[in-house]
Write a structure and sequence with these properties.
Elements lengths: L3 E2 L2 E2 L5 E3 L8 H9 L5 E2 L3 E2 H5 L3 H5 L10 E6 L3 H12 L5 E6 L4 H4 L11 H14 L4 E6 L9 H10 L5 E4 L14 H8 L7 E4 L5 H11 L3 E4 L9 H11 L8 H19 L1 H8 L3 H4 L7 H9 L3 H15 L5
Parallel strand pairs: 3-11, 4-6, 5-6, 6-7, 7-8, 8-9, 9-10, 10-11
Antiparallel strand pairs: 1-2
């Protein structure tokens, strides 16, 4: 049976690309879409920044036809600001609006946004209702199990947010106090999925980094789909590999070195086209190590890649990697 968010048909068991700050920009989303991501989100966007017309926030509203379905993710600490930001974001014509109630980092959570709202569910409900009322688009939410081990309240959050109109919920299987440490615990996600009151799709997030884990957790935790984050950085092939494994029970061979080079080049070219050469090249540097993880003798090439300031030079290094290291990769 297809999973639906409003009128968006995501197929039988969708794989979602997580919104990740400084990662999930249009160039990265492009390579993930090419490799099978069923739905994606923008990097999270500050509601205050959007209302102030801050250039960085406005740029994050860029969505492209080939990315659909795509959601714009917002975060903020004030109800009225979030209402106005949702109205602005809707004019960028995404497929849905997502609210971030999960970000654990200090400069978000300690300002009363992101996971901080897990400490004030009444305010979270009020804020969500304001967003739902201000847009014609479906509204979804991403959150965590709770603030800490003593306040795991996502079961209540799921019911209350569904009651005021959200159309899907993604749950990261950690509390805010865990940040990204330890292991994600999906048992509470399964309890919510089994709650007879819950009718909306429930997506699980946290620690899915292999095809076996995706298959096993699909069966064990009964979620409607899986959101993949860090495991896709430098490895967008994870989406196609998980899909193939879910369908056939067989492993797809990993990407060849020439495929890695090709996708890395594509990512770089899109990055430069979207951000300009200087910023595009600079921001791409964080991805090279991931694209070529496990490749023998890569270190000297990585040094060249992160020190080059010219796109032709980088292309030339990538060609050299392809030509010289191919034999070392099985």
């Amino acid at each position: 049976m297809s999973v639906k968010i409003g009128n968006i048909d995501l197929g039988e068991f969708p794989l979602l690309l997580a919104p990740m700050e400084d990662v999930s920009d249009p160039p990265f989303r492009y390579v993930c879409k090419q490799n099978g991501a069923d739905m994606m989100y923008t990097e999270f966007i500050s509601s205050e920044g959007l209302i102030r017309d801050a250039a960085k926030s406005i740029q994050k509203l860029d969505v492209f036809e080939y990315e659909r379905p795509i959601g714009i993710q917002l975060f903020g600490s004030e109800v009225e600001t979030m209402r106005e930001a949702a109205r602005i974001a809707s004019t960028a014509n995404p497929d849905l609006i997502d609210i971030n109630y999960g970000c654990p980092v200090k400069n978000v959570a300690c300002r009363g946004a992101g996971a901080s709202l897990l400490q004030d569910v009444d305010k979270m409900v009020k804020m969500t209702k304001a967003v739902v009322d201000s847009t014609h688009l479906p509204v979804t939410v991403k959150t965590r199990l709770g603030w800490d081990d003593h306040t795991k309240n996502v079961y209540e959050v799921a019911e209350r947010l569904q009651d005021i109109g959200i159309q899907a919920l993604t749950i990261h299987g950690r509390t805010r106090s865990q940040m990204y440490k330890g292991h994600a615990d999906w048992t509470l996600i399964r309890e919510i999925k089994r709650n007879p009151r819950i009718r909306i799709p429930i997506f699980g997030n946290g620690d899915v980094d292999s095809v076996e884990k995706a298959m096993n957790w699909r069966m064990e935790y009964e979620v409607d789909g899986i959101m993949i984050g860090r495991a896709a950085i430098g490895y967008p092939w994870i989406f196609r590999e998980v899909k193939h494994f879910l369908k056939t029970g067989e492993h797809l061979p990993g990407p060849t070195l020439s495929e890695r080079v090709h996708i890395c080049k594509t990512h770089l070219d899109k990055s430069v086209a979207w951000k300009g050469e200087r910023t595009g090249i600079f921001e791409m540097r964080r991805h090279y190590a991931n694209y070529f993880k496990g490749i023998p003798n890569f270190k000297e090439y990585r040094v060249k890649l992160v020190s080059s300031e010219n796109i032709l030079e980088i292309h030339s290094v990538l060609e050299e990697i392809s030509a010289r290291l191919e034999f070392a990769v099985t």
